[in-house]
Protein 1
Amino acid sequence: MRAVVWHGTEDVRVDNVPDPAIEKPTDAIVRITSSAICGSDLHLYKVLSMYMDEGDILGHEPMGIVEEVGSEVTQISPGDRVVLPFNISCGHCYMCERDLQSQCETTQVTEYDKGAALFGYTKLYGQVAGGQAEYLRVPQAQYGPIKVPDGPADERFLYLSDVIPTAWQAVKYADTPKGGTLAVYGLGPIGQFAVRVAKHFGVERVIAVDLVPERMELARRHGAEIVEWSDDGRSAAAIKELTDGRGADAVIDAVGTEAHGAPVQSAMQTIASRSPSAIAAKLMEKVGSDRTSALHTAISTVRRGGTLSISGVYGGAATPMPMMELFDKQVQVRMGQANVKAWIDEIMPLLTDDSDPLDTESFATHRISIEEAPDAYKMFQQKEDGAIKVVIKP
Ligand SMILES: NC(=O)c1ccc[n+]([C@@H]2O[C@H](COP(=O)([O-])OP(=O)(O)OC[C@H]3O[C@@H](n4cnc5c(N)ncnc54)[C@H](O)[C@@H]3O)[C@@H](O)[C@H]2O)c1
Ligand SMILES: [Zn+2]
Ligand SMILES: [Zn+2]
């Protein structure tokens, strides 16, 4: 089959690789019909390359048609249309029973002391072959795959794999009080859907921060007030001004470690990503530091006693944090990978509603063949050509 394969830092290619096959009775094989590229894939493209091996298949936002199931898989059958959550979880362990599927104890990657395995996401998360490919082996298929109805286009349901549950969890964790204000940093797919979900939940004021004009415009169309990101403190001042000088009641960081405006850490990430992987991994484990311009601004613009909800991914072991500010302001902080399966029952009615209230079907900016994926990674990293969400049609 054809698959999007990692070859090195900023080097992604489409290769012929062996078709996957059932290996365990809890596996399924899915023929992929749509598979999105995620902001998280950009971390693998560069920052986390020390945890990748040449030949790793990328992708954790896939959906398709079930081809084959193992003997213990009864919740889905060949021919079913399914979306695959990015985290691989069992549904019956201590963590899954508590709706913490991203910490699943059956698939946890104990070698690296990490949570649940993820599709297409480094040795830290199990090095499981990803879904930017024609076929995907799905472990724990007795629980993971989400059955969706026939009819609407793939893009109506595709973002159940990651984007919508992540945004949903971000908004839930932010817990904006009634009549309050939510600030959202970063208007990639996660931030865009956080704005929409917050509006759906009735959050009165949503202030959204980014620096890419078309992303700011899209959020504005969905009801957000826009503040343009700037390095010099002006965006923080603007948010204070909009909130009686106090700051927002709740803040979501949907940016993560590749934030603009952190030149020193940015150079360090580049050096680490180009070092031999054993040295780079040690660097990351001991002194690796994130680009925190968005996170620190988020902290400075949440009001005293407010909530900070972090869905952007951070990976540094030695990232400096303003502990005095966090402590003195009594900030509540919640974060982590999305527990995708925990939110599906709440989200699904919005996707099966013919009026498509979250406007999912029109969200993708680019639909491409799998052969075009290497160029799409470059375009997406450079934020060129209005790219917000790229969907591969293998
Ligand atoms: N927690 C989870 O389960 C989970 C799931 C999916 C994605 N993520 C993470 O969420 C983050 C966002 O994902 P995405 O797909 O929307 O990514 P993306 O790269 O498309 O979006 C990030 C946005 O942040 C903006 N930005 C950069 N620096 C900024 C700054 N200083 N202030 C404000 N905005 C800034 C960029 O212009 C961009 O629009 C990534 O870190 C991703 O890894 C987490
Ligand atoms: Zn993703
Ligand atoms: Zn589990």
Protein 2
Amino acid sequence: MYKFAHIADCHLGANREPVLQKLELAAFKNTFDKCVEKKVDFIIISGDLFHVNIPDMGVVNDLSSFSATLIRLGRGLNSAVTADKRREPKEPLQLYDFEGCPYCRKVREVLCELDLDYLSLPTARGSTRRLELRALGGKVQVPYLVDPNTGAQLYESDEIIAYLNRTYGATSRAGSARAARCAGAAPRPSGASRSACRANRRRRAARTALRCRPRPSRTCCS
Ligand SMILES: N[C@@H](CCC(=O)N[C@@H](CS)C(=O)NCC(=O)O)C(=O)O
């Protein structure tokens, strides 16, 4: 059985009054928040999303930005654990990233879901920080996480996510299923009993112990 939302006749951009335009977009965003909250399997937007054929770029800009959140099924919207319920790093973590990098987004979502403070070190193409990153890790690739509390320095988004869960996740698991498996625990699929899940987890752990063995890395000192 699938649960879906059907949205039509949104007419975004119909209002010229800036306050009403903001409300219009907020209502639309609320609709999507509801879809995420209700865990719909898919959304059909049929007809008249925008009011005119060539919509205002401000509306398109906002819409395209929050459709990223929608496609990510609301990742990074809610915390999986709060700072008072997990080990608190003394010094903020450091993340070399840039906004347009999809792998970095995955990591930032998890940092947010784990309620962790971090220092973002923008490393966009053309940034002089790239030299610093190469000197530190050996190559220019983001995301790159530095944890001054443990000395860990990691490339690879899934490995970073697994590290964050392992180190600061308490009992929660934030982020992608693949990263959660690497951390040794996959989320329970809805409908599966706890005991069946536990047995599956044991089987998976045996399998993933082979697949998720830490790769030898000259930069990883965790
Ligand atoms: N497998 C890596 C892929 C990371 C990756 O491809 N990062 C890109 C940016 S999205 C990068 O650093 N490219 C080098 C560059 O921008 O010069 C991961 O999951 O972290």
